[in-house]
Specification:
Layout lengths: L3 H27 L11 E13 L3 E8 L5 E9 L2 E5 L1 E5 L2 E7 L5 E9 L5 E9 L6 E10 L6 H25 L11
Antiparallel strand pairs: 1-2, 1-9, 2-6, 3-4, 3-7, 5-6, 7-8
Helix pairs in contact: 1-2
């Protein structure tokens, strides 16, 4: 009679393993693109002094950089997949002014983008909370963002990882198929 118990347990464990793998893989298979804030990584090329005057639905920005070779390109506000754009207009050497409308309440990340003398894109950012009277005055780095390109090595590693997961699933499925639980003998 005890001959069938370990086998039954093995089947149960195999079924639990398959269910666990499927449950763990479900978020990976159904995940959408993350809409999170990039805190600003890359090579520093200078500093920017942000003065953001936050109104009810608009932010008025004065931005001063310590490198006059940085030319303003754009002012962008991002929040959880939402995006608003505005212009940065030079006021004097190293100082820009911009205004941007925010169409939803909450925390926004303002990005100022620049081009340097080698035509590389640089950026700086600051967080603001929409609503009158929530002004920001901060010095933040201006940096060259890291390129987010994925090479052949990362792609190959991803293919290998998915292949290994598929092999485990196939092995578990095959080990469950065709096995019979021994029945106790009648005497």
């Amino acid at each position: 009679m005890s001959d069938g118990v370990p086998h039954v347990w093995r089947r149960g464990l195999q079924a639990a393993a398959v269910a666990s793998v499927l449950l763990l893989a479900l978020p990976l298979l159904t995940a959408t693109r993350a809409l999170a804030h990039d805190p600003g990584q890359g090579t520093d090329v200078g500093q920017a002094r942000w003065m953001a005057f936050v109104g009810e639905h608009e932010v008025d920005v004065t931005l001063t950089t310590d490198d006059p070779a940085l030319h303003p390109v754009e002012l962008v506000a991002r929040r959880a997949g939402e995006k608003a754009t505005g212009r940065l207009t030079p006021v004097s050497e190293g100082t820009e002014h911009g205004r941007i409308k925010l169409h939803a309440e909450g925390r926004w990340f303002l990005y100022a983008t620049f081009k340097d003398t080698r035509n590389r894109t640089a950026e700086s950012w600051v967080a603001v909370q929409q609503g009158a009277g929530r002004n920001v005055s901060e010095t933040r780095p201006v940096y060259l963002p890291l390129a987010q390109t994925y090479g052949a090595g990362r792609t190959a590693a991803t293919v290998v990882l998915y292949g290994m997961a598929a092999a485990v699933l196939v092995a578990v499925a095959r080990s469950c198929r065709g096995r019979r639980v021994p029945q106790p003998q009648q005497s």
